[in-house]
TrEMBL record:
<feature type="region of interest" description="Disordered">
    <location>
        <begin position="38"/>
        <end position="60"/>
    </location>
</feature>
<protein>
    <recommendedName>
        <fullName>SPW_0924 family protein</fullName>
    </recommendedName>
</protein>
<keyword id="KW-0732">Signal</keyword>
<feature type="signal peptide">
    <location>
        <begin position="1"/>
        <end position="18"/>
    </location>
</feature>
<feature type="compositionally biased region" description="Low complexity">
    <location>
        <begin position="50"/>
        <end position="60"/>
    </location>
</feature>
Amino acid sequence: MPRLLVAFLTCVASAVLATGAAFGIVAALNVTPEQQNVPLVTFPDPPANGPSSAPSPSAS
């Protein structure tokens, strides 16, 4: 009987420890500030008037 009690208490203690670790990890992740969403590469805006009116070199 004492072995069964020790096994049960070990299981309960490990479950409590795992639950505490999970809540601790989630709390630590919520405390960290979010990083800014700044793009590493930017592209120029396309011209507002659409395609160019000059003929393309391959059209000749």
